[in-house]
Task: inverse folding
């Protein structure tokens, strides 16, 4: 079996990998799988790390019958009857992903989308988690600072940068702590959702002083109500969303920042 690992080139900040060198080393040893890893100076692990693990570093892994990636692949990369494993962003019918999906179908390819890998109870096994919330919160504070600059008002977040520019989580924490010491006015932030992503975002927001950084966490029952006036039922909401209507807009005027973590 030959498996390819494609380099990530959709975003300049993308350093993630679908399989680490230690993953590959273990699979080579236990399953006798061969790996070709596309050369990349961007990913968190170097070409030398993968070569030391036993993989062959190549310019292109397009000829491999099975290819792993993290983000979407360009349509020119696909080959007839290939197997591709990545986040395709197509399962909800996203318009931007339809040309890619059509190409996969035209070539009789197999798409294995991480978003559809679930356990016996239908719970996703591969999904955004704590670190996505951390990065999203950092980017949100940075963007909020740009908005304050545009208004010409006091901006305690002026020194913040996008999350991908920091070398470590500790550096992010220190930058937010310093911003908190500069705060002079109240920031009210709403968190739509309470799972792993929300918890990661709250972890960063909670570094700001509680006296000036106010946090509100919204659940589904805060966002929707039954159209017929019956009591909100969480299980029914997910099974019959057409029976519910949004009431979330009533909270928006009281928020300075909204983090969508559902």
Result:
């Amino acid at each position: 079996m030959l498996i390819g690992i494609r380099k990530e080139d959709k975003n300049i900040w993308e350093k993630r990998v679908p399989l680490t060198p230690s993953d590959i080393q273990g699979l080579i040893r236990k399953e006798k799988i061969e790996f070709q890893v596309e050369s990349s100076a961007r990913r968190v692990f170097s070409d030398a790390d993968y070569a030391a693990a036993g993989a062959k570093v190549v310019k292109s892994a397009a000829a491999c019958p099975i290819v792993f990636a993290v983000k979407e692949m360009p349509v020119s990369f696909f080959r007839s009857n290939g197997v591709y494993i990545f986040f395709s962003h197509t399962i909800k019918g996203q318009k931007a992903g339809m040309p890619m999906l059509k190409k996969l179908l035209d070539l009789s390819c197999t798409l294995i989308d991480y978003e559809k890998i679930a356990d016996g109870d239908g719970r996703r096994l591969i999904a955004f988690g704590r670190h996505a919330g951390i990065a999203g919160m950092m980017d949100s504070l940075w963007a909020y600072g740009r908005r304050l600059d545009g208004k010409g008002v006091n901006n305690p977040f002026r020194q913040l940068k996008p999350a991908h520019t920091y070398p470590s989580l500790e550096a992010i924490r220190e930058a937010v702590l310093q911003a908190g010491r500069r705060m002079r006015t109240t920031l009210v932030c709403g968190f739509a959702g309470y799972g792993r992503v929300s918890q990661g975002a709250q972890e960063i927001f909670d570094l700001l002083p509680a006296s000036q950084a106010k946090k509100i966490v919204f659940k589904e029952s805060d966002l929707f109500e039954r159209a017929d006036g019956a009591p909100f039922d969480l299980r029914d909401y997910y099974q019959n969303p057409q029976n519910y209507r949004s009431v979330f807009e009533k909270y928006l005027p009281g928020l300075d920042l909204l983090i969508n973590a559902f």
